[in-house]
Write a structure and sequence with these properties.
single chain, alpha/beta, four-stranded antiparallel sheet
Length: 596
């Protein structure tokens, strides 16, 4: 379902350049000024040498001019270095912010199509490489202006000397072209290998407990580092390209210099040019063949281009579409699913284009009531929870909140109406209080403490070194304590819909009982959707939704569904199936009742 997406944008150099045009203009002027000073210096030096050889008075004005040009070249180069560094930092910050905003504004199913480790690499290293392009391009003017100006200077001094240099110019151009192409290819392959390592490392960190329990650390170590061979190959390839370019230039450039000086010497012997002209010609020849700056700029631009290609899929992500409706009408959170279907990587029918995750879900949850969502692993419970709060858009059907389609609401206005808590919550913020206050709005200290009491988190928070002001890095938290902080964050941002996606699984029985009482106190004011694995969660809900293979198997009060032996079997097999999926072990055989 896509409604009026905003136009996509990419990480083009021109777009980035428009962010800081004054700084880039100053950088361009500094680079140009340094190049012009470098080009003027040989002519001034040659004229001064001629003045000294003529035997007249000391040409103090010429010597002063040479000194001024030297200082000017040094000053302009220093200014270009400072401007280049600061502007690159600002452009990198801007590009990271823009790319991250695009990812967060997109539908999670689209944004998470890129593996987490690869996404991290793109948002960090790749943005820095791509953001360097405008600065590199602005500073590369010196790399282009110096050889062109030097050839022009040779032509003005003596056409024959310039012709000698131009004989080798095609070989120099071919060398630069080959270097740029091969550097771009090697850089792109290197970045891809880096992304693979980052993705595998992120997977291992997320599953550290499982790896430790299964004692597969050595195997994971080998799996993570396996792409290092390819990374090393691409790195060696990059340096080989640089080495070949350096070797070829080390052979070509002295030959060109020797040819220019030989022709210049013959022209001096013939009386066509003077000693000062020969000195100037030698300096111009050195500038013309000095391709180091240009080579570095071309290499940097090639890396920036390769990095920009990896960012373009993120920057062209379509934001969550909406029709721009204003605030929701007043209501306690009446939730309605109308023939909702969700498919994985394909169409809703689950054919060759995709696997069905939810199919033809039709359901009404009265406002202010509680709904427990149960089913075996893979039945679609978390997908249902994601669709209910518009973390995921359905491929077919419509979800309505208090009579308004979720896709019609501006996400900025919808998000404060829906609170989420997860089994493994992320904990942003610097301190414990920050992470509870974090949300669509920043909760005040009183609301933070009330929410922590409701989530039964105030007890362990009080034992921390600085209480609510304890930095998260200094607060060792168990899985259940992390869940309670996630619950407290949801309680601190009350809306008309509260969705708990397995957010009670890490709580002990007593804590869960108190949290359930806090949830019951919200009856009539807030609709609660609880993805449940425990029998107690289903038993206390006003209504139960029983999912099986993405379809609604049954709905109704827990007491009525309990008469079905297959419904009872869900709660006997769920824990075993989850543990088997995490460890790779074979789940225990089902009983005759469970196998029905």
């Amino acid at each position: 379902m896509r409604l009026n997406p905003r136009p996509a944008t990419a990480s083009g150099t021109r777009r980035l350049a428009r962010r800081h045009p004054a700084a880039l203009l100053a950088l361009f002027l500094c680079s140009t000024g340094g190049a012009l000073a470098a080009l003027a210096l040989p002519a001034a030096l040659g004229h001064t040498v001629d003045g000294l050889i003529d035997g007249g008075p000391v040409p103090w004005s010429g010597l002063l001019l040479c000194a001024v040009l030297t200082l000017a070249e040094t000053g302009f180069d220093a200014g270009a270095a400072v401007l280049g560094t600061s502007t690159t930092a600002r452009l990198t910050a801007h590009l990271r912010t823009r790319t991250t905003a695009r990812v967060l504004a997109a539908e999670p199913r689209d944004a998470l199509a890129v593996p987490t480790g690869d996404l991290t690499a793109r948002l960090t290293a790749r943005t820095a490489d791509a953001a360097a392009a405008p600065v590199t391009a602005a500073g590369a003017v010196a790399g282009v202006l110096l050889p062109l100006g030097a050839v022009t200077g040779l032509l003005l001094i003596d056409p024959w000397t310039a012709a000698a240099f131009l004989l080798g110019a095609p070989l120099l151009v071919a060398l630069l072209h080959t270097f740029t192409r091969r550097t771009a290819d090697a850089g792109a392959d290197y970045q891809r290998a880096q992304s693979v390592i980052a993705h595998r490392l992120t997977e291992a960190l997320d599953g550290a407990d499982t790896i430790r329990a299964a004692r597969t650390g050595a195997r994971e170590y080998r799996r993570i580092l396996e792409p290092l061979g390819a990374l090393a190959d691409h790195g060696r390839r990059t340096w080989t390209v640089y080495g070949r370019a350096a070797g070829q230039s080390a052979l070509l450039l002295p030959l060109l210099m020797l040819l220019v000086l030989a022709v210049g010497g013959l022209r001096l012997h013939a009386g066509a040019i003077g000693v000062g002209d020969l000195v100037a010609a030698s300096r111009y020849a050195a500038l013309a063949v000095g391709i180091g700056a240009l080579t570095g700029a071309l290499g940097a631009l090639a890396r920036s281009r390769a990095a920009a290609r990896t960012l373009d899929p993120l920057l062209t992500l379509a934001p969550l579409p909406h029709e721009g409706l204003g605030p929701l009408p007043g209501g306690p959170g009446h939730l309605e699913f109308r023939d909702v279907g969700v498919a994985q990587d394909g169409g809703p029918d689950g054919g060759p284009d995709g696997k069905p995750l939810l199919t033809e879900v039709h359901l009404t949850v009265p406002g202010g009531t509680s709904l427990a969502v149960v089913g075996r692993s893979g039945s679609g419970k978390s997908v249902f929870a994601a669709v209910a709060g518009r973390l995921l858009d359905p491929d077919t059907g419509t979800v309505l909140l208090d009579g308004v389609p979720l896709t019609a609401m501006d996400p900025a206005l919808l998000r404060p109406e829906i609170a989420y808590a997860f089994a493994r919550p992320a904990l942003p913020g610097t301190t414990v209080e920050d992470t509870i206050a974090f949300g669509a709005w920043t909760a005040d200290p009183e609301a933070v403490r009330a929410a922590a009491r409701a989530a039964r988190a105030d007890g362990f928070i009080g034992l921390l070194p600085y209480g609510y002001a304890t930095p998260l890095t200094d607060a060792p938290l168990s899985g259940g304590e992390r869940q309670r902080l996630g619950l407290a964050r949801a309680f601190a941002h009350p809306g008309r819909l509260l969705i708990l996606d397995d957010a009670l699984s890490g709580l002990d029985t007593v804590t869960e009982h108190h949290v359930r009482r806090a949830l019951d106190e919200r009856a009539g004011r807030c609709t609660r959707v609880i993805v449940a694995h425990r029998l107690s969660s289903a038993a206390r809900a006003d209504r139960v939704l029983w999912l099986e293979d993405g379809r609604v198997r049954a709905t109704g009060p827990h007491e009525e569904l309990w008469a079905d032996p297959e419904y009872r079997a869900v709660f006997r097999t769920e824990v075993a199936e989850v543990e088997a999926a995490e460890t790779g072990a074979v789940p225990p055989p089902r009983t005759e009742v469970e196998a029905r």
